[in-house]
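INTERNAL TRANSFER SHEET
From: sequence group
To: structure group
Subject: DUF1285 domain-containing protein

Please process the attached sequence and return the structure record in the designated field. Keep the field labels unchanged so the import script can parse them.
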Amino acid sequence: MSDKRICAEQTLTQLTKETELCTQAVLFKIDGKGDWFYLEEPLPSKFARLFSSILYQVDGEYFLITPAEKLKVEVVDHPLVIVDYQRCNEAGMDVVTSLGIVHKISGIQDFDIKDEEITLTLERENTAKLGRACYYRFINEYILVDN
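Return from structure group:
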C-alpha cells in the first residue's frame, strides 16, 4: 500500500472517529424511499445531493461529517436508492441513485442479493438498495435462468 493511501486512510479515520457531534438532536432524516428531510421538512434535491457527498456510515450509524462538524442522520432503511444501472464493460457497472449521482462499481458481484432486497455498499460505507423497478429488472437480467 502506498504512503499516500495510508495517509489518506489515517486522515479519514481521524475525521470520522474524532470529530465531535455538534448536537445529540437528529436534524436530518432519510426515509425508506431515499428522500431527505431537515427538521421534518423535505430537503430540496440539490441540497440532498450536496449533503450525500459528506454522508458516512460509522459503526452502523449515519453522520454528515466535515472537518469541523458532525451531525447524526436518521436513516429508515438505506440512505440511497438505486434507480438505474448500466453495464459499462465486462468488469464494471454504473449505478444511478435517486439523487442522480452516478457511482462506479466493479460488477454484479458487488451486490448483496437477498429474497427481500438487493443492496450494495458504496463509498464511505453507505448502503443503497435497488428501487422497485431496478429490483425486478436485475432479477430478470441476472437471476432468472431460462430452462
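Handover comment: The two ends are 46 Å apart (CA to CA). The helical segments are 3-18, 45-52, 132-143.
Transfer complete.
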